[in-house]
Structures are given as structure tokens and as C-alpha cells.
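Notes from the 1:1 (GR / supervisor)

We went over the backlog. Supervisor wanted to see one worked example end to end before approving the batch request, so GR pasted a single chain during the call. The sequence is below; no edits were made to it. Supervisor asked that the structure be written out right there so they could see what the output format looks like.
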Amino acid sequence: MSVKIHPTSVVSDKAKLGVNVEIGPFCFVDEDVEIADNTKLINNVKIKKYTKIGKNCTIYDGASIGNIPQHLGFKGEKTFVEIGDNVTIREYCTIHRGTSFDDGITKIENNVYLMAYVHIAHDCKVGESSIFANNATLGGHVRVGKNVFIGGLTPVHQWCRIGDYAMIGGGAVVTKDIPPFTRAGRNPAKIFGLNIIGLRRSGFSNETIKLLKEAYKIIFLRTDVLEEGIKLAKSELPMTPEIKLFIEFLEEKSKRGIAPEASKKKSKDESLEE
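Structure output shown during the call:
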């Protein structure tokens, strides 16, 4: 089957289209765009230059991918958007190119599902099999792990990190990092224990979940200082891959800091933020 392009669409001769690509009515595909096999642009989709889209993706009405970043320091440099395989991008999503203030790439891994009106800003990285509900919004330079769920109407502050298998409730305001395996909500977002349902759905064993629960208790509930909790967890728990991932995330240098645990008293800084 050859490429199908609706007669109302504009596709640059310098775009590279794979086998079985379908481009519906009123779409625009710029030069220096690559679209791999079996990907479909449904209607009114705009794909700007320096964008690569993988195989078996479906992009719905009004989506705009590869536009220049909303960054006052951007001077027209050559930066990119990269989208993996089996990605679904629903109506009116926007995904912007990277900047020279980071690695220059906005990247979405395989099997990601973006619901309507999601915004992915410049230099963001979204891990595989993550799901963003309607109107979830990432500021610049956000790092999202794999198998993350972000609820609707949820903004994430620039430079935040969200760890693997985390779940963020709808309407939360994420201003600090959300560790892997946890669930978060409220404004500003706080951590409410582990994402137990998500972990079970993802096939984690009861033993692994039990260990993660213990790590959470040690780090966030038994001590008031994060570093002390991490030190205790290292001394008391086996370093399984999951515990190692959890601790390494907490130890990694962060521009935003770690979101507070919900049962802890508010700090002076948190009161000021609200």
C-alpha cells in the first residue's frame, strides 16, 4: 500500500514518509520531517520541521507538533522533536521543539497516550507507556519516567522530575519532583503513599510492593530529614532493582526538590507557596 495524502493537505517534497502513511484532510507536513510506516494524521494536523515520528502512531484533529518553543531565549537554532512508535496523540495536543538551553530535543518514547489538549513543552522527555489525561501540561525541561499516569488539568512546573510508575491525580499542581512508584495530588502536590493499584496492574509482585512500602515508611515517615531516611533504608533493606531505583531518584541532584509527604506538617516554605 502506498502513501495516502488527501488533496487538501500540503506535504513538503523534502518530507520523508514511510510505507502506508495516511495524511487526512487539511494537514500540513513541513520539510525536514520524517514519518515512519503506518502512521496516520487524521485531520488538520500540523507537523513542523525537524520532527521525527515513529511507526504506528495516530495523530488526531488539530494537533500541532514541532513548533518553535515558548522560550524567550530561543533564537531560531536547529532543535528537534522525536516521537517513538505506537504513540497516540489526541485532539489539539501541542508538542514543541527543544532549545539550546538543554540537549535540544523534546522526546516522547514508545506507546505513550496523550489525551486531548495536552501540552509538552520544550526539552521535555516522556518515558514509554505513560498516559496523560486531558489538559495535562508540562513546563520546559520536565522529565517523566515510564508507565506514569498524569491526571487531567494537571500542570507540571519546569525542571520537575516524575519517576517511573508514579500516578498524579487530576487537578494537582506539581511544583516539586514526584518519586517513582508513588501517588500524588492536591495543590501544591504532595505524596500520598505508593501507587499500589498501578503497581499491581503493572505486574509487580506482592513481595516487591511490600519492600517498597517499607522503603517509603523509612524514608518519609520515620525521619524528618530525607537524607537520614535514605541512609536508614540503605542499611535496613535489600537493594533490589526497585529499591535502588527509588533511592537513586531521591539522591539525584534536583532543581526543584522532592514533594513533601502528605501527613507531614507544612513547612514555612510550603505555606508561602500556597
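Supervisor's comment: The radius of gyration is 20 Å.
Batch request approved.
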